[in-house]
Design a protein that fits this description.
binds ligand 26W, Glyco_trans_35, alpha/beta, about 775 residues, Rossmann fold, 9-stranded mixed β-sheet, carbohydrate metabolism, Glycg_phsphrylas
């Protein structure tokens, strides 16, 4: 860094650490790439519009097995390792579950020595920074690159031209696409270090640059300076910002351009790397697998076909068959508003050649399957259906939990399932135990190693060996101490970062995830008001002190949940300042929930809130992180909750609520919400208080719309599940009053989380989808 150690600032030490760790990883990084090339190993290409890697340096030190020596070295230098890594930005290049899953999977692929590239966009601005003003969410830009990106390398020699717009013409020489413009995709590589450092893969993020010759000199010399720079401006805009929504398909031209930019640059790079060692394109499926992380990269099919046909002279049918063999598609949501559909006109304007290919694929499905495919349409009502396109161009389609995959088969793609039975399979999500236990919860990680020995980090099923210790009071004592330590670490962090005081002796009841009506943060805050009212009604009772911790961002345009954020903060303002109750009930909502905050919050939690309307949370992965860190779950039979409960045992899980089928039935009942409210006095009392402005005295009617909506609509069945949720919460209190019982349940949860390792999930993909043999 060209800095005197004696004069170095924390930032200098952090940049120096990044370069030092990257250097430590470089030999394996080069060796992994060489072995893949020279041994002709098949490699995986994971295409995702989102990656949420979190801070990289401490994780890299752990995976290089250098954490202790790095912190010791800093001690020798009189520098605090924790302060050095605390300054590292948390690249928010994703919205939530989908982006974090991609990061866990990349780390597991490297740990399993599965040759792989992650492909994404290097947004200059990640997901907005969340602030609260007067209890309301305010979004601020996230300039994560200002303090540099020292762990990655820009690859000026690796760049591809990505065409947009223009015309396609058919002549006897075949089809020619004359694009209106081209943008340049420039590569930035970040090493993905496997645990142990023996294998290192690459996360390649593209940023958009104007093609050199794009400054329109004619328009420039004609004085039309803006016109001249238009394409340049557009280029800079393309990889400027991540779309901050994780449920609504906004159908914006820029979003489609970003998706095309990602898939085209990535597929071109996959073909380029293949042709480095191979000639016969028909052998591509033996050397490359491409996984589409939801429909956002679903243009990968048409793009691969385009390149094979237009640039490599392969026949259309051969190209289409090759694409199916190479591609896999993972679906992460059933929400209708999240299923991407692109207007045919927009596709024709931006990607005329791709539209042509999609139309031909649609014809081909009908030619091949005849009337059996009558209900299959890649284009319908003037919209290109990206889900159907992804399925038709993939040899395997998977859901992300057993329940979700069943619903994908039955409700989302029943006609496609019928066409090709067995194409849709389940691969339940997973999480990496390196970041979510070894890094986030060192005290518990050390206790596990002391108790069952090392090695669990890459063989998580070994946690089962903890189970017998659940009967040992000394072990339970030690286990309890790790939770207490995590609570104190959180208290220090909340105080330093947010000036928030945390009562560490209380039951920490945590709900952290994106704000969405189906995740039912509303049910949680309504129950909290009810608990407050009951404490005030009976202050002498033996209430279990609780802290309700919320965390999560709302998509900027999602007003309904922005009201819920405000309600949580408004209720918090009243309850936290109520002398009668504040020692027994508190609400904490630190702004700007992200991977780093999750690493602080999750190890400290006693109770994990996984309370979505059954059938709507595809899987969840936070649920797994909490259980792995010894929190007990209160939840519905939704997503991976179902499988977590099967693993940990019904007696170690606080279940409540309607099942997915009961939800569908209840929605059919007119006035189901009113009926549920009228049956629940506690809920009526809560809605009464909110409606009359108890938490918004300066604007009593602030939440009247929200309350009306509950009485008259309640699509997410908050009212119908309220009493069951309340009874389950009382069971939680009862269990918590018996610390040994609670600890036993908590230890059993930890011991039974082995199958939710992302190593298990990636091995499943390697075997059933990517057909990549485990590395020697
Ligand atoms: C088009 C806008 C958009 C952007 C992102 C639509 C949908 C998404 C994602 C698919 C939403 C998402 O993150 N889904 C979550 O994926 C996780 C990983 O599989 C699951 O665990 C969560 O249940 C699911 O909500």
């Amino acid at each position: 860094m060209g800095v005197e150690p004696s004069r170095a600032q924390l930032l200098d030490w952090r940049l120096a650490l990044a370069h030092t760790l990257r250097e430590q990883a470089t030999d394996s990084w080069l060796d992994s790439a060489r072995r893949t090339r020279e041994d002709g190993l098949k490699s995986v290409n994971y295409l995702s519009m989102e990656f949420l890697p979190g801070r990289l340096l401490e994780d890299a030190a752990i995976n290089l097995r250098l954490r202790d020596s790095v912190s010791a070295s800093f001690d020798d230098l009189g520098v605090n390792f924790a302060d050095v890594v605390a300054g590292e930005p948390d690249p928010a290049l994703g919205n939530g579950g989908l982006g974090r899953l991609a990061a866990c999977y990349l780390e597991s692929m490297a740990t399993l020595a599965c040759p792989a590239h992650g492909y994404g966009l290097r947004y200059e601005r990640g997901l907005f920074r969340q602030h609260f003003e007067d209890g309301r969410q305010v979004e601020r830009p996230d300039e994560w690159l200002t303090s540099g990106d020292p762990f990655s390398l820009s690859r000026p020699a690796t760049a591809y031209a990505v065409p947009f717009g223009g015309e396609v013409s058919d002549d006897d020489g075949g089809t020619a696409w004359r694009p209106e413009t081209r943008l340049v995709a420039a590569a930035h590589d970040t090493p993905v270090i496997g645990y142990g450092g023996g294998w290192v893969n690459t996360l390649r993020l593209w940023s958009a640059l104007p093609a050199a010759d794009l400054l329109d000199l004619d328009r420039f010399s004609a004085g039309d300076f803006f016109g001249a720079a238009e394409t340049e401006t557009w280029a800079r805009t393309l990889s400027r910002v991540l779309y901050p929504t994780d449920t609504t398909d906004l159908g914006r031209r820029l979003r489609l351009s970003q998706e095309h930019f990602l898939t085209s640059a990535s597929v071109q790079d996959v073909l380029h790397r293949f042709l480095e060692t191979q000639q016969d394109l028909r052998r591509l499926p033996e050397h490359a697998a491409i996984q589409m992380n939801d429909t956002h990269p679903a243009l990968a099919g048409p793009e691969l076909i385009r390149l094979l046909v237009d640039e490599h002279g392969v026949g259309f049918d051969t190209a289409a068959d090759l694409a199916v063999q190479v591609l896999g598609y993972t679906n992460h949501t059933l929400l209708p508003e999240a299923l991407e559909m692109w207007p045919v006109d927009l596709m024709r304007h931006l990607l005329p050649r791709h539209l042509q290919i999609i139309e031909r694929l649609d014809q081909r499905v009908h030619a091949v399957h005849g009337s059996a495919a009558d209900d299959v349409h890649l284009i319908e009502h003037g919209q290109v259906k990206m889900g159907e396109l992804a399925v038709v161009t993939s040899h395997r389609v998977n859901g992300v939990s057993a329940l979700h995959t069943d619903l994908v088969r039955r409700n989302l793609f029943p006609h496609l399932e019928a066409l090709t039975p067995g194409r849709i399979l389940n691969v339940t999500n997973g999480i990496t135990p390196r970041r979510w236990l070894a890094l986030a919860n060192p005290a518990l990680a050390d206790l596990v190693t002391e108790t069952i020995g090392p090695g669990w980090e890459t063989d998580l099923d070994r946690l089962r060996e903890l189970e017998p210790h659940a009967e040992d009071p000394n072990f339970l004592e030690a286990f309890g101490r790790t939770k207490h330590l995590a609570k104190h670490r959180l208290a220090t962090w909340l105080d330093e970062e947010h000036g928030i005081e945390l009562p560490v002796e209380a039951l920490l009841d945590v709900q952290v995830k994106r704000l969405h009506e189906y995740k039912r943060q509303l049910l949680n805050i309504l129950w909290t008001v009810s608990r407050w009212q009951r404490i005030k009604a009976d202050p002498g009772a033996d209430w279990v002190p609780r802290v309700k911790i919320f965390g999560g961002k709302a998509a900027p345009s999602y007003t309904a949940v922005k009201d819920i954020i405000r309600l949580i903060n408004d209720v918090g303002a009243v309850i936290n300042s109520d002398p009668e109750t504040r020692e027994r009930l508190r609400i904490i909502y630190p702004p700007n929930y992200n991977v780093t905050m999750a690493e602080k919050l999750i190890p400290a939690a006693d109770l994990s809130e996984q309370i979505s309307t059954a059938g709507m949370e595809a899987s969840g992965t936070g649920n797994m992180k909490f259980a792995l860190n010894g929190a007990l779950t209160i939840g519905t039979l939704d997503g991976a909750n179902v499988e977590i409960r099967e693993e940990v045992g019904a007696e170690n899980f606080f279940l409540f609520g309607l099942t997915a089928d009961e939800v569908l039935a209840r929605r059919e009942q007119p006035g189901h919400a009113r009926a549920a409210i009228e049956q629940s006095q506690p809920l009526q009392d809560v809605l009464q208080a909110i409606a009359e402005g108890t938490f918004s005295p300066e604007e009593p009617a602030r939440y009247s719309g929200l309350v009306d909506h509950l009485w008259n609509s309640d699509w997410f069945l908050v009212a119908s599940d309220f009493d069951a949720y309340n009874s389950s919460q009382e069971l939680v209190d009862m269990s918590y009053r018996d610390p040994l019982r609670w600890q036993r349940m908590a230890v059993t949860n930890v011991a039974r989380m082995g199958s939710f390792s992302s190593d298990r999930a990636v091995r499943h993909y390697m075997r059933e989808i990517w057909n990549v043999p485990p590395a020697q």
